Amino acid sequence: QQREIKASVYYKVDDPMYETQISRMLELPRLYRDIYDKIFQFPEETQCNHGASDELGSVMNLSKKIRDFLLKNKIQSFYMQELETVEDLVSLVKRDELGTTAEQTDSKAGPCSRQIRKSFMEAIKLLQKDGVVFQKSKTSKNMYYVTEQDTELHKVTLEVIRADCKRPKYAEKGCHLRHILSCIQQSYNPYITEAVVRCLLDWLEINSEVVTTMEEYYTVF
Fold first, then answer.
1. Measured in whole angstroms, how far is the alpha carbon of residue 97 from the centre of its chain?
2. Are residues 158 and 200 in the same domain?
3. Contact 203, 148 (CB under 8 A)
4. Are strands 175-176 and 217-220 parallel, antiparallel or unpaired?
5. Which intervals hold domain Stn1 C-terminal (predicted)?
6. Among 51, 33, 34, which residue's Cα sits nearest to residue 42?
7. What is the tally of structural domains in the chain?
8. Which of 28, 29, 108, 133 satisfies CB 3.0 to 4.6 Å to 144 for a cystine?
9. Closest-CA residue to 66 (of 119, 137, 140, 102)
10. Residue 4 covered by a domain
11. Is 122 helix (H, G, I), strand (E, B) or coil?
């Protein structure tokens, strides 16, 4: 039986007593102890990113809980300070963001209050970005309206779609999202964003008040 041996590198080993190989084998346990047999540690930059990721996760969790609270209690409008009095939401911030005990929280009331306020601000910003809440005026900075609960916004939106879908231009395909947005901004409030309208239309569709005819086109039943 014949065998063929191939190699990409050829060199002659002049080591009849295998001293090089023995030395290498004796060195391996030391290399393992010094390099491999250690607890892995993230680089400092990675640790910072990991901390930022945890903070974002906490804010996202808080924003979800705020949305659930607003819908469950059918709240149409609120001030941010009012949310800071809801014990379940505040407890969530203390647990996820601060990670302190009740005794520590009491002894550091000032910094804790600032951290709670910051957490609520970031969570509401996220809800605004998703169109879940909105503001009707730039002057009332802390007054927010809940998109899925604002009956006046619902009424205006349905009236826009219902009226325009009777026109030949929109009768077949329905009204495009951006057309609906433009009409709402003109007839209701100029500060309504596309994210708000998208969130509202999704809500109305879930509740069978509008239907999608094609991508981003809507009509009423």
1. 16
2. yes
3. yes
4. antiparallel
5. 58-221
6. 51
7. 2
8. 133
9. 119
10. no
11. helix
- The residue with tokens 């969570």 is 123
Burial letters for 113-152: b for 16+ Cβ neighbours within 10 Å, e otherwise? eebbeebbebbbebbbeebbbbbbeeeeeeebbbbbbbee
3 state SS of 211: strand
Would you say residue 134 lies in a domain?
yes
CATH code, domain carrying 170: 1.10.10.10
Residue range(s) defining the domain that contains residue 174: 150-220
Domain contains 21: no
Instruction: Kindly state the helix (H) or strand (E) to which residue 52 belongs, with its residue range.
Output: helix 44-72
Cα-Cα-Cα-Cα dihedral sign, residues 124, 128, 133, 138: positive
As a whole number of angstroms, the distance between CA 42 and CA 145 comes to: 43
What the block records as the tokens of 91 is: 């407890």
Q: DSSP letters of 17-49?
A: T-HHHHHHHHHHHHHIIIIISS-----HHHHHH
Q: Give me the CATH number covering residue 142.
A: 1.10.10.980
For every one of its 221 residues, what pLDDT tens digit does the chain have, with 9 covering 90 and above? 666 767 666 666 677 777 777 887 888 888 777 777 766 665 555 444 544 456 667 889 999 999 999 999 999 999 989 998 899 998 888 876 555 444 444 444 454 778 888 889 999 999 999 999 999 987 777 899 999 999 999 999 999 999 999 988 888 889 999 999 999 999 999 999 999 999 999 999 999 999 998 889 999 87
Assess whether 190 and 141 both reside in one domain: no
Helix (H, G, I), strand (E, B) or coil at 151: helix
Residue 57 lies in a domain: yes
